[in-house]
Write a structure and sequence with these properties.
With 176 residues, this protein is an alpha+beta fold. Helices cover 41% and strands 10% of the residues. Helix 1 runs antiparallel to helix 2. The structure holds FE2/S2 (inorganic) cluster (FES).
């Protein structure tokens, strides 16, 4: 049978491998238990629980989807639905610096694509790829909600606003 495109939700590597177990570190588990006390139901704690998981593993693997679903008494499909809805959750491993360029309207008209293309060219990456040294991943995202400071590039959890090719070049140098 032909392999499905890796982005297809039914591709082989998007299913949990039962031999790969994941578990929160004792410290993360403590945080998770505290999160549960802050919400009226387990389901309501799903977004922060996923943030916590991403903090520990850097992305949300299919095994993590199953683990979180067990912890919160939810189906893996419910958890995967949330993970795939929000682009703040990484569905693949990313580099140490995850550079996300907003290319929605306000950013696009203020030349976000110049920045995006420059990054891909400079780092020799195709969109979504990570440099071989594991330092940089470049991606394109929808509106980051900061249109008045367009164009915007998100690096991990930080926004870099009013960007330009020159500024991104400087940022790359600072991150290296
Ligand atoms: S369009 Fe880029 S932040 Fe809104």
């Amino acid at each position: 049978m032909a392999d499905l495109h890796p982005d297809n939700p039914y591709a082989k590597d998007r299913f949990a491998d039962p031999s790969k177990k994941v578990e929160f570190s004792p410290e993360a588990k403590k945080k998770f238990d505290w999160i549960l006390t802050r919400y009226p139901t387990k389901e309501a704690a799903l977004l922060p629980a996923l943030h916590l998981a991403q903090e520990q593993w850097g992305w949300i693997s299919p095994e993590t989807v199953h683990y979180v679903s067990e912890l919160l008494d939810l189906s893996p499909a419910t958890v995967f639905g949330v993970v795939s809805f929000y682009n703040m959750y990484n569905q693949k491993p990313v580099g140490k610096y995850h550079l996300q360029v907003c290319t929605n309207l306000s950013c696009m008209v203020t030349r976000a694509y110049d920045i995006y293309e420059h990054l891909c060219e400079k780092l020799d990456l195709k969109p979504g790829e990570t440099t071989p040294d594991g330092r940089f991943t470049v991606g394109e995202v929808e509106c980051l909600g900061s249109c008045n400071t367009a164009p915007v590039v998100q690096v991990n959890n930080d926004y870099h606003e009013n960007m330009s090719v020159e500024k991104i070049e400087q940022l790359l140098t600072n991150l290296k």
